[in-house]
Amino acid sequence: MATGRAVPDVLAAVDLGSNSFHMVVARHSHGQILILDRLREMVRLAAGLDESGRLDDAAVERALRCLERFGQRLRAMHADSVRVVGTNALRRARRKRWFLERARAALGHPIEIISGLEEARLIYSGVAHTSPMSHDKRLVIDIGGGSTELVIGEGFNPMLLESMSVGCVGLAARYFEDGRITEKRFERARTAVRMELEPVTAAYRKLGWLEAFGSSGTVRVIGDLLRRLYPDEPRITPGNLAKLADRALAAGHVDRLALVEVDAERAPVFPSGLAILLEVVETLGIDRLRIAEGAMREGLLYDMMGRFTDEDARVRSVRAMEKRYHVDAAQADRVEATAVALLAQVESAWGLDDPFAELALRWAARLHEVGLDIAHSKYHRHGAYLLEHADLPGFPREEQLLLAALVGAHRRQLSLESLEDLVPPWDRLAEYLIVLLRLAVLLHRGRSPEPQPEPKLRVRGRTLTLELPARWLKDHPLTIEDLDQERQYLKAAGFRLVSG
To answer: Which of 73, 117, 486, 491 is the most buried (most CB within 10 A)?
Structure first.
């Protein structure tokens, strides 16, 4: 299932964080990533979310202006492949499709919203690929604006991932909104973090690690502070963090921090970020935290490289799903081959030239029977539920929803209502992929290992002409009945299936 395509010369990753937007542009050279440019802007997207999950106009305006600038730089640097991901703030935002469409127009590229665990996986990848190679277990901590990720892994492989819904922006809004820093507020902030940590602490301590790393802005700023304030012991340790907390409490207000490393933009979230880091370090028993060079942006770049080779994390997730739910691999092979053969005949007429159309169809073909491991009755719906809600490393939310839609509609009556929730252009194109998958599954309903003639398919708009050898059809009367039934299903969805 590898793509076999050459890795593009210039790659770009854009991270739409809850506090800051980041962009990194890199050149691929001999299997390595060489950074060409970095951009960072404080957008404070999470601060613009109200209690109902609505983004206010000011936050939207800040985000769009930033993305316009990012888009201009991407065009100037001729980036060949670009991935844009949204994290906690966009996960929480409601009725965000209109914003995503405007953001795509401003930047020039679509936006993927990733899960907390996928964010953790990408963070770990970024740290692992930019740190000295080691096969020892390491812990990675990333404090973002809307969430905090904890990962233990070996080499490039994450073993234990967690995304806690506590970040420096949200915590600042709850306990330091007016800028005052008091002992009571600081302790309440730490207690909130402790409550998030409580369900996972035992598992992390049991697995253990040899080295601990902190990535992204909060840890980096605190590390820079400690190097200047305590040159004799310039490390992130529980003791040094406690001394830094005392300095913040003594200041009493974010405007009086008087710390060169904490600029006016970061000052409002500094006490909350410090509270998170201090609580994580003490609760997990971390003696020393090293500062990582990489973060999620670098993880995205290496993940993009993998998508052009045989290291695509999505491929590994599909294979793992097949094994976990005991998919009949031979049947999946048959359905996949026929679905792709049908796609090749109609991709131009139906506008399915995007390489992801073939990938999505392949993965849906391989996973269309995952629901059988739960129950045969309505197994397509069970499969759709699994694909929508499972943790699938490498898959952004939009791609999972597309797979779920394909699998959920591959048999029985065809309803296209669920496609309205998909992002463009898949809200429009998914129905064509569904039709191709349905035909491929139908033609292999007998599960026979015997080779069968390749079907010929022509389309004109929503009319499909399917050709199969008359003699073969005569020997397979059940297929004729299935095709007659499929005509009725497709007719109800606005398609016309005729025999050639």
So the answer is: 486
